[in-house]
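Appendix B. Raw example, untouched.
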Amino acid sequence: MPIDFDIDHERRLVTARGRGTVTHEDVYAYQLRVWGKADVAGYDELVDMSGVEEISIPSMDSIPRLADLAARMDPPDMSSRLAIVAKDDFAFALGRMYETYRGLDPRSTKEARVFRSLPEALAYLSSKDSLTSTT
């Protein structure tokens, strides 16, 4: 699977790293496999797309469908954060689309943001203050 992940129960953080070619099937499989686990409900999430060479999606409709699935899987009584690291322009644009769809869904309890660097993403996840803007 081109998406590896680690679950840090102590920090309540799921870290996923894409590599090579990532397809929409890979992303859906990751979403269902990880976020279907009851023991990660309400955890923050870091998705690092820095190692991805290509993103293969059948259409742009994949983004709102994934956001819908993810929002349906959010625990309604727990909020969390998602930081996406996307250095490539295409990955960044897809991430921003996902961020927008997640933000518009009233079922979503996970606040998503897209960043160009890992340090920015980590700072966002560790911050307990108001949300910062992306660059």
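End of appendix B.
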